[in-house]
Task: structure prediction
Amino acid sequence: DSNVGKLAKWLRMLGYDAVFFEGDDDAYMIDRALKENRVILTRDTQIMKRGVITSGRLKAILIDSDEPESQILQVIEALHLDFQSRTFTICLECNQPLEERSKEEVKERVPPYVFKTQTQYMECPVCHRIYWRGTHWQAMLRKLERLTRSR
Result:
């Protein structure tokens, strides 16, 4: 829901399909979650009281913290997510699976230094954003490893 926007982006970075709902239309969010077999991640205690959730028909997790790092740890533990093998396989903007691109295909679309230092590239087929496993990717993995060790 709208209280966990950064968490949705973290889940996408980890390679998990995550839809972020903005607004107050809880009925739409619940209906879509049911139709698409999704898990609702929320900070809203009122959503957790809905019959469809209390009956177990729809899985939902009440997120304990306001901090994105604590939120992602809670979700990794609750859903037993693998946070290493799928990283950066989903577009952070479009939530679409990324497609591999050759170095030559992206030559004119990435900064010169990136082109010189990176060999693997991914592209979103919808928004055409280009991704590579540079320092941001490495920093994110180190941060997750540090966070999971501290628990």
Observations:
- The first strand starts at residue 40 and ends at 42.
- The helical segments are 5-13, 26-35, 45-48, 51-54, 68-79, 103-106, 112-117, 135-149.
- Strands lie at 40-42, 60-62, 99-101, 121-123, 130-132.
- The chain has two domains: 2-79, 99-149.
